[in-house]
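User: Please run a holo structure prediction.
Assistant: Happy to. Please share the sequence and the ligand.
User: Here you go; the ligand is iron/sulfur cluster.
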Amino acid sequence: MSSGKTLGEVLRDQGVSRRGFLKFCTAMASMMALPPGSVAAVAAALEKARRPSVIWLSFQECTGCTESLTRSHTPTLEGLILGQVSLDYHHTLQAASGTAAEHARMQAMKENHGKYLVVVDGSLPLGNPGYSTIAGISNVEMLKETVEGAAAVIAVGSCAAFGGIPMAQPNPTGAVSVSQIVKDRPVVNVPGCPPIPVVITGVLAHFLTFGGLPELDELGRPLAFYGDTIHDRCYRRPFYDQGLFAESFDDEGARKGWCLFKVGCKGPVTHNACATTKWNDGTSFPIESGHGCLGCSEPNFWDAGSFYKPLSAPTGTINQVAAGAALGGVAAGAAVAWHNRKIRGEARAKHEPVTLDDLEKSS
Ligand code: SF4
Ligand code: SF4
């Protein structure tokens, strides 16, 4: 349970030195995509911050999102649980079970009313409450009951954020996302299948540091991590701009590391931080391993057609679109990217969500 101590006190109790604390703050500032000059402000805020109680609910999911959290390298999972937050309920990670586990959830809600965070992975079945239950309670009822006194809800993974794989056609359970159920509490979407662990902890770190939620895009995703497309930050982008594409996974272009657009990469329409934060302790990300982006942090990615089908060319001829973008002579891919940015910009101005499907339909 939340001890009431400040984070500074907790870390000192754990024997963390001032130098270690500043190192921790630097990692947190980096996770929140803040400039290096903000480390002192982060340190001052964290010194006084009280650990929020976190209740983690898992519904129709595969445990991949929790697996991702356990790969969180900065800070470590132990640091996350013991230092930054009080993780009071988590089916997979808690020692308690049965009645004791449910008691822990109720106690955390009562003691931290109005202040605790609810993290959800997995979608919710509306087709029949009996499709997924925990302790005899349907997922929908448990979510409604638990968010009642929450400060905010974080929907982790594409299942919780957008319905994900359980919602893929024919959607046998009538799966819906968290934001389709929770209407009276702020909901932050952290999509990805699974989401990048540093992004999960980055959102928690932001709440801890500033006592509030980060700035969100039109789909409820934190802009610091989802503001750019994979394509915007991809190291293969120079090949794309020159029109140098792999045509198959074993041709010369693939061996030379050229752009994967023509073998189905969805990077131009996918917002996420894979190209910058990378995975496995910053080792790599799918495109660096030779496979195109699947678009897993966008709504309906599973139903958006083959992972290996290239995105369609935009409306009009490539030359017309390229001319519109004042990019005469550039590759078809650059024109597609410009076209998609234009669509997103227009939708943002109107506060409308844009899906991968919308972008393909306009082609
Ligand atoms: S988003 Fe992906 S990894 Fe997370 S629970 Fe759903 S299917 Fe599993
Ligand atoms: S299409 Fe894919 S591989 Fe090519 S530059 Fe864009 S994100 Fe990178």
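The beta strands are 53-58, 86-90, 116-121, 124-125, 133-134, 137-138, 150-156, 175-176, 187-190.
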